[in-house]
Amino acid sequence: MSVLPTFLVLLESLLNSLTSFLKDAPALIAVIAFFIAWIGCWLPVVAVFSKALKLQPEQKLPLIISLYLIAPLIVWGASRFTNTNFLDYGLVGNISLLSSLGLGFSLGILSLAIVFTLQFASGWCYFQSHIKQVQSILLPSLFVALLVGGIEELVFRGFLFTQLTQDYSIWVAAAISSLIFALLHLVWEQRETIPQIPGLWLMGMVLVLARLADGGSLGLAWGLHAGWIWAIASTETAQLIKYTGIAPEWVTGQNQKPLAGMAGIVCLLLTGLIMVFLCKYSIS
Length: 284
Prior knowledge:
Elements: H1 3-24, H2 27-53, H3 61-81, H4 95-122, E1 125-127, H5 131-164, H6 170-184, H7 190-193, H8 197-213, H9 219-237, E2 241-243, H10 249-252, H11 262-280
Antiparallel strand pairs: 1-2
């Protein structure tokens, strides 16, 4: 027997053994294996990108996009090993996904608009008109928001949450997946992210509610997530909002990050209440 057929037989045997192990393994083991595989596949891409593009440490966007672009492949691989599929993760291929996405996106924008309007009315911040800047960033930031929001929902509210519900109740699985979601944001920026950890955890919980309200589909959660990213990224990049300093940072958000203050928490709580209402009257 030649070397190549022998290798293929051994590889097939290894994959079958791994599939059997992950299928019967505790959910957390499968989750850990998933993230190890994701990072392991991404690191060579980082090395190539960094060398080819001569990226500086502060140039994170190409690295973030590369990380997110390979995520669906890792999720697909995980689905093969755990005997599940993308439908189990809430990624349905029908028109209802798009309608839920649009609804969620609109709710995300509206919830932030209400919070900022209340802050304007209270004199805590004011609007700066940078129309040309806004026009130049709206489409790029929309693309990034849809990409990041969609991939994060597929990973955290799709694969991760679904996997954890095999061993835990829905709310324990929601709490664990939301904590992992929050803590992994520390990878990119520690100083600014630490004050946002409670807000990010609550955001994860609200997005789980959104999936439940949408009958298990990721459409509503994806829309909400993308809407929040798009609105915040656009206002920050174009410097549309200037805080007056009248209200303390714990109210408006430390480092001008809404999730690091009560304003962002209130926004999430209001959105969560809407999701609870929709859970009773499913939109699907």
